[in-house]
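Let's practice the habit of predicting before peeking. Look at the sequence and jot down your guess about where helices and strands might fall. Then scroll down.
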Amino acid sequence: MGGAGRSAAESTGPPESEIIARAKAGDHEAFRVLVERYQGRAYRLALRIMGDEDLAQDVVQEAFLKAYGSLGRFEGRSKFYTWLYRLVFNLCIDTKRRDRSAGQVEWSEEQALDVAPDAGAAGIGDPDGATPSRELERKELRELMTRAIDALPEDARRTLVLREVDGLSYAEIAQSLGVPKGTVMSRLHYARRRVRAALVEAGAVDLASTGGGAEAEA
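Done guessing? Here is the structure:
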């Protein structure tokens, strides 16, 4: 994810530092500029995690309210969107915990294969295996994988969601979580290893097929 995800206003408008300084001084119009500049990206993030348009809108609105109330504590050590990203992400996770009706993060077959490539042996991602019994097996495997991911420690699960659901690079995840890039890579390796171990334990994949592979750095 790079410059393609940024709005034209970010490239042609006033410098972010200037806008934030004006907003801190009580310029409501300046804060409105920040809202207009980043609300689209914040909404897309919330929608990917929440899977519901209304819930995503509520999260983004709450995130901007929190950002406005905490703006005086924003020290500018990171980009404003990085700071906002953390607010949105944390609010999404908190909302999903509070509201069971929001459900879990849904893992597509493509994401499942990225987390555990060995799952392909069970038919995930195989368009030629769409028999009723095969579909049931694939559904059960996806549910098993979801439970394995939900059972991960919070930091590992959050890092995995940022990578697989939001598609962030290692560097972007490191920025969002405020940890070194090496920590991000270690957490992802740990998360994938735990998920594969859970699949093996459940008999979903063979132990011999769980060699996995190193993910290309991004």
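How did you do? The two ends are 10 Å apart (CA to CA).
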